[in-house]
């Protein structure tokens, strides 16, 4: 299994992603520089990591969507390749239109850095199949523009197509306003595309996937991806 | 030629910055302000292009880059400059 971690100017979670894939899960992992206009078909997984690509100038992800590599990422995703966008990676995926909706400033206007509870909304996809349906995971968030927005028609489509993968919730799985850290519509924390091969999420699974730490909930996402690719089954 | 572009959130998109600034204005006693919308202003200096071409090109720039049309609307004017 070949993984590629894309690096934009300003990406700062690329090393954590690389470390988890290469050293924790022992996968062949390469760096992919944003200016590379290379054929990505040799990869099985492309990761768009967190950070502040292009300084979040104009809008987070707005400029990164036009980096040379993104044409190839769009092509790769269009042919069914698996793409995982984390935080700024999620922002880049919505700006580029690979995922629907938009990510705007947190409703409280503060940068929020804390561990949150996430409810697993569906496990019939390659990114969360190793999770228990409706279980609660703990993942850290660290963002200022994580407020997921989509119009009512788009939201209905996401829910009808079971494209919502994670929702912010309380410790008992209650997805209420009280436990919504950033104002995201319907407490949405992570979604997949219609083709079910691209996931974007604001929380950071790579920050809780190293066995040296006590919280390893992030491993479930990586294990789901690996097991999907190794079994050759796309869920 | 000078393109003056205004970008703001569409109706229905939460504008927390606008709300925060509104509260600040109220605290300062400007209670006559019933609503605020914060947006972006961009100026472009354009050379070697006709006004008709500029209309098309600036619109493209707005659609592709300056505005995220999922959440933002834009408008612009084109003025000749000496």
Describe this protein with a few key phrases.
A: 235 residues; Rossmann fold; nine-stranded mixed beta sheet; two-stranded antiparallel ribbon; globular; B: Mth169, Chain: A; three-stranded antiparallel beta sheet
Explain what the structure shows:
The complex is a heterodimer of chains A (235) and B (82). Chain A has helices at residues 14-24, 68-78, 88-95, 152-160, 219-231, and strands at residues 2-7, 28-33, 45-48, 82-86, 102-104, 112-120, 136-143, 147-149, 164-169, 188-192, 198-201. Chain A is α/β, with parallel strands linked by helices. Chain A has a single domain, classed as Rossmann fold, CATH 3.40.50. In chain A, the strands form 2 sheets. Chain A has a 9-stranded mixed beta sheet, sandwiched between helices. Chain A has a two-stranded antiparallel sheet with strand order 5-8. Chain A starts with a strand and ends with a helix. Chain B has a single domain, classed as Phosphoribosylformylglycinamidine synthase subunit PurS (Mth169, Chain: A, 2-Layer Sandwich), CATH 3.30.1280.10. Chain B is α+β, with helices and mostly antiparallel strands and 82 residues long. Chain B is elongated, with a radius of gyration of 16 Å. Chain B has a 3-stranded antiparallel beta sheet, covered by helices on one side. Chain B has helices spanning 16-27, 51-66, and strands at residues 2-9, 39-45, 72-79. Chain B is built from 2 helices and 3 strands; from the N terminus they run βαβαβ. The interface between A and B is medium-sized, with 20 and 11 residues.
